[in-house]
UniProtKB/TrEMBL annotation:
InterPro entries, alphabetized: Amidase, Amidase_CS, Amidase_dom, AS_sf
Protein name per the record: amidase
Transmembrane segments: none
PANTHER family tied to this protein: GLUTAMYL-TRNA(GLN) AMIDOTRANSFERASE SUBUNIT A, MITOCHONDRIAL, TRANSAMIDASE
Gene3D superfamilies for the chain: Amidase signature (AS) domain
Higher taxonomy: Bacteria, Bacillati, Actinomycetota, Actinomycetes, Mycobacteriales
Listed GO MF terms: amidase activity
SUPFAM superfamilies (UniProt xref): Amidase signature (AS) enzymes
Organism: Mycolicibacterium fallax (Mycobacterium fallax)
């Protein structure tokens, strides 16, 4: 396997190669560090690259491998979104307002280290993780490896750009209103928003009033399943017997699948024919694979975005901004939206959170008759870098929301959803479909995703900057 094939092989395959002695951890880490040094000045996927720490961790991993020790990710590199604490490194949240550096790892980082992962660095995010584009006053713009004039999406845009360009085999992301699924879509990757509570978010628990979860951005379905197996919270949450990798490796059986292309009530939204056509193409494939496929729309409440998602997001932003040591350093657009969030009282937020059960029951009513729902990944492709630079907060929210209407309701309901690549659009940019599962049922999503992946493999599809 040559070096290019190796960096695009994915985390699970690299773990097998490391365990089998086909490669060494230091050599694999150096391969990524060399690529980052060469390609990232143009992409700006990383906010900081932890060169010395990565080399030390890789050397330690190799010592453990040579001693016969085995762990699921022993020696495998990973990129970390810069909203997650890595001990000794500033968690910037895309701003100059944060600090000081945490002295302890976030819980998800602890679990990744215990599994043997080597942290390459922290990836770029928009300020306070607000936007589905990754640009900030503090750190500039991150570019899409498929077209550097376009955004990779956000807020996990740096993580997605790094994986797409072969600057990391997989990455940690977070998703509060589509922030894993949007950049995974626009960078041609697999992105999984797990069930709320599945992957730990401590010490930043309850982000955006329960909207935010941690999850993987990967090249393969198996990589996402492996991430869940090593990070999953050991709790009362239902989980598949034998783990998520085992679930992904088993055929899903004959499923009842609904195709839904209606847009949640959001005001103006794009209705790109190619995005919607991908859903129907997926339906045709799934019929050929033996599944029962029907056309059935999700019953979105008329006010779901404005009554549930936006208030929780804006109040969460306000709380996050108040916790910063230097909020005056934030962009005026961020500060303006934080002021809006301060208008939402504790009592009102309690009433909004109490209404989640009614929203979830209505959205999930479709699962009385089907097992999985498929929607478009996004309503259209990525915007150009700098497209919203001169706009205020509310205007930016309205315009970006028109591109990404399918994600945020599922953050309010808390159930799992995944996007998987579905070819390229007429401009040569990635398309995706979104698979929505029942609460707690990542196993079915992974199994069905793996079946589609086997029929329409995407992992070796590479962007121009790779």
């Amino acid at each position: 396997m040559d070096s290019i094939d190796l960096v695009f092989a994915g985390a699970a395959e690299q773990a097998r190669m490391l365990a089998g002695g086909a490669i060494t951890a230091p050599a694999l880490t150096e391969l990524y560090l060399e690529r980052i040094a060469r390609l990232d000045p143009e992409l700006r996927a990383y906010r900081i690259v932890l060169v010395d720490a990565a080399r030390r961790a890789a050397a330690e991993a190799q010592e453990r491998l040579d001693a016969g020790e085995r762990a699921p990710l022993l020696g495998v590199p990973i990129a970390i979104k810069d909203d997650t604490d890595v001990a000794g490194q500033l968690t910037t949240f895309g701003s100059n307002a944060a600090g000081p550096a945490p002295t302890r790892d976030a819980e998800v980082i602890t679990r990744l280290r215990e599994a043997g992962a080597v942290i390459l660095g922290k990836t770029a995010v928009p300020e306070m993780m607000l936007w589905p584009f990754t640009e900030s006053v503090a750190f500039g713009a991150t570019h899409n490896p498929w077209d550097v004039a376009r955004t990779p999406g956000g807020s996990s845009g740096g993580s997605a750009a790094a994986v797409a360009a072969g600057l990391a085999p997989f990455a940690l992301g977070s998703d509060g209103a589509g922030s894993i699924r949007i950049p995974a879509t626009w960078c041609g990757l697999y992105g999984l928003k797990p069930q709320r509570g599945r992957v730990p978010t401590a010490p930043h628990e309850g982000g955006w009033n329960g909207l935010t979860v941690n999850g993987p951005i990967t090249r393969t379905v198996e990589d996402a399943a492996l991430f869940l197996d090593v990070t999953t919270t050991k709790s009362e949450l239902p989980a598949p017997e034998g783990g998520f990798v085992r679930a992904a490796s088993h055929p899903p059986g004959r499923l009842r699948i609904a195709l839904s292309t209606n847009i949640p009530p959001i005001g103006a939204a794009y209705r790109d024919a190619e995005q919607r056509a991908a859903v129907h193409q997926a339906g045709a494939l799934l019929r050929d694979l033996g599944h029962q496929v029907v056309l059935r729309e999700i019953d979105y409440p008329r006010t779901s975005i404005y009554a549930q998602v936006l208030p929780r997001m804006l109040r969460g932003l306000s709380d996050d901004v108040r916790a910063l040591p230097h909020p005056e350093r934030l962009d005026s657009r961020t500060r303006g939206l934080a002021r809006v969030g301060r208008l939402i009282s504790d009592d009102r937020m309690a009433r909004i959170r109490a209404g989640e059960a009614e929203l979830a029951a209505r959205v999930n009513g479709i699962f009385d008759d089907v097992d999985v729902v498929i929607t478009p990944g996004c309503a259209t492709g990525p915007s150009r870098v700098g497209a919203y630079r001169r706009l205020g907060g509310l205007a930016t929210l309205a315009l970006v929301g028109a591109r990404v209407p399918y994600q945020s309701v599922l953050n309010a309901t808390g159930q799992p959803a995944a996007v998987l690549p579905w070819g390229l659009d007429r401009q040569g940019l990635p398309l995706s479909i979104q698979l929505v599962g029942r609460p707690f049922d990542e196993a079915t999503l992974l199994s069905l995703s793996a079946e589609i992946e086997a029929d329409r493999p995407w992992a070796q599809r590479r962007p121009s900057i790779s």
